[in-house]
Design goal:
Oligomer: single chain
Number of helices: 16
Structural class: alpha/beta
Helix content: 40-55%
Bound molecules: NADPH dihydro-nicotinamide-adenine-dinucleotide phosphate, (2Z)-2-iminopentanedioic acid
CATH class of the largest domain: Alpha Beta
Strand order of the largest sheet: 9-8-7-6-10-11-12
CATH topology of the largest domain: Rossmann fold
Largest sheet: 7 strands, mixed
Order of helices and strands: HHHEEEHEHEHHEHEEHHEEHEHEHHHH
Shape: globular
């Protein structure tokens, strides 16, 4: 583990003390502060006026009750969250996660990461995140709708196209965004398209937003491979998860000539040496909302491994695209022994700190989530642009912008790592390049 700078250690100690028990948030803060020592040495002014202390403290945190009635007529209670972390660069922007594991520490980690990710896109968006401990698994469309309506009935007063613009994340896709938007419109009596992104195409959504996170991550990794004269062509890839990010990661890898041989959900993973049949995965996950294990009943030659680690499957490129801390030090060791050359994080913070350290020590190219998965939020910002100008771009136009943004993020992370004396360290490159942009805006605005 990188040693933390002596000026930053008391700041980290204070964050640890004031946010005790919020494991994921503390993990995310520690990683960023480990990168900032080199910046403060070169630009001590960025630490003036307690800037780093301020960046670690959300501007506003909202926690609320979400009561709703299930199909059996029972009243259910969930907890809703929105952490408006930093608005130096634009309105708070970041997804909503509906998953039973959600708590304030998880939302704060995601909101904190979002600040730097959004800064890296170069677009005018601040950082925020929200969600609920609601479990959508097995719920009817009616239950999902009533939950979303109740959630928005409290949250709407804190949102606005110039204030805070949520989108999807785990458990929140186009269906949920539709219900949330409908209720926002009804409560405010305003057709304010730019208040949510990830909308359906018929009511203000952007083409390529659905594909953007996965496609963007593959554009990033492809650019990273190119620095060593390589590409996806002929490579074996493993992509964890089988949700929005995983599906469109698989799609783009295939388009670039790679072969994805395994994907997963929280129950287990499938291996198909012939290459994952993506149409079948889409049918199972997007249409039937089923489990990935169903794949093996429909595709001969494939097999399913319940529990177990998907990272045991040998591959050249690994793209963890499910959830935080899903790839441990042990998994990293296995991947390295099996000859992995590149790891690109589609999920937010999927690799544990030990796994990141092992990859970097082994010379594996490693693309951290806040850079590699920024294509989703970047395309959300493009959706906001289209809404503001009451325009709608073609798929090709939008994907072209996405590809250019991802290449730019890659190149800026690489150049920043080089500038700070650690060429090839995309973790430092992403943290520093994102931080500098936010820091300059915050210092210009005074102590707020
Ligand atoms: P989805 O809900 O569409 O899919 C999530 C996938 O991850 C499912 O296969 C799910 O399996 C699996 N998963 C979720 N939680 C766990 C868990 N605790 N353990 C094991 N597997 C789990 O979400 P997304 O694809 O949108 O999000 C995936 C990751 O990408 C998240 O880290 C998210 O923050 C990140 N991300 C998403 C963006 C987006 O635009 N959607 C943008 C940038 C990052 P199961 O069905 O069994 O729960
Ligand atoms: O983690 C993320 O960047 C997202 N879930 C997407 C956020 C967004 O506002 O599109």
């Amino acid at each position: 583990m990188t040693k933390i700078d002596e000026k930053l250690q008391p700041i980290l100690d204070d964050v640890l003390r004031r946010n005790a028990g919020e494991t994921e948030f503390l993990q995310a803060v520690q990683e960023v502060l480990e990168s900032l020592g080199r910046v403060i040495a070169k630009h001590p002014e960025y630490a003036d006026h307690a800037l780093i202390e301020r960046i670690c403290e959300p501007e506003r945190q909202i926690i609320f009750r979400v009561p709703w009635v299930d199909d059996a007529g029972q009243v259910q209670i969930n907890r809703g969250f929105r952490v408006q972390f930093n608005s130096a660069l634009g309105p708070y922007k970041g997804g909503l996660r509906f998953h039973p594991s959600v708590n304030v520490g998880i939302i704060k980690f995601l909101g904190f990461e979002q600040i730097f990710k959004n800064a890296l896109t170069g677009l005018p968006i601040g950082g925020g995140k929200g969600g609920s401990d609601f479990n959508p698994r097995g719920r009817s469309d009616g239950e999902i709708m009533r939950f979303c309506q109740s959630f928005m009935t409290e949250l709407y007063r804190h949102l606005g196209e110039y204030t805070d613009v949520p989108a999807g994340d785990i458990g929140v896709g186009a269906r949920e965004i539709g219900f949330l938007f409908g209720q926002y419109k009804r409560l405010t009596n305003r057709y304010e398209a730019g208040v949510l992104t990830g909308k359906g195409l018929v009511y203000g959504g952007s083409r390529a937003r659905r594909e953007a996170t996965g496609y963007g991550a593959v554009y990033f990794v492809n650019r990273m491979l190119a620095t060593r004269g390589e590409g996806f062509d002929g490579k074996r890839a493993v992509v964890s998860g089988s949700g929005n990010v995983a599906i469109y990661t698989i799609e783009k890898i295939r388009e670039f000539g790679g072969k994805v041989i395994a994907c997963s959900d929280s129950n287990g993973y499938i291996v198909d040496e012939a290459g994952i049949d993506l149409e079948l995965v889409k049918e199972i996950k997007e249409i039937r909302r089923g489990r990935i294990s169903e794949y093996v009943d429909l595709k001969s030659g494939s097999h399913y491994v319940e529990k177990g680690s998907i990272w045991d499957v040998p591959c050249d490129v690994a793209m963890p695209s499910a959830t935080q801390n899903e790839l441990t030090g042990k998994d990293a060791g296995t991947l390295i022994r099996n000859g992995v050359t590149a790891v690109g994080e589609g999920a937010n913070m999927p690799s544990t700190p030990e796994a990141v350290r092992l990859f970097q020590e082994a010379g594996v190219m490693f693309a951290p989530g806040k850079a590699a998965n920024a294509g989703g939020v970047a395309t959300s910002a493009l959706e906001m642009q289209q809404n503001a100008s009451r325009d709608s771009w073609t798929f090709e136009q939008t994907e072209e912008r996405l590809a250019a943004i991802m290449h730019d993020i890659h190149d800026r992370c690489a150049a920043t790592a080089e500038e700070y004396g650690v060429p090839g360290d995309y973790v430092l490159g992403a943290n520093v390049a994102g931080f500098v942009r936010v820091a300059e805006a915050m210092q210009a605005m005074g102590v707020i």
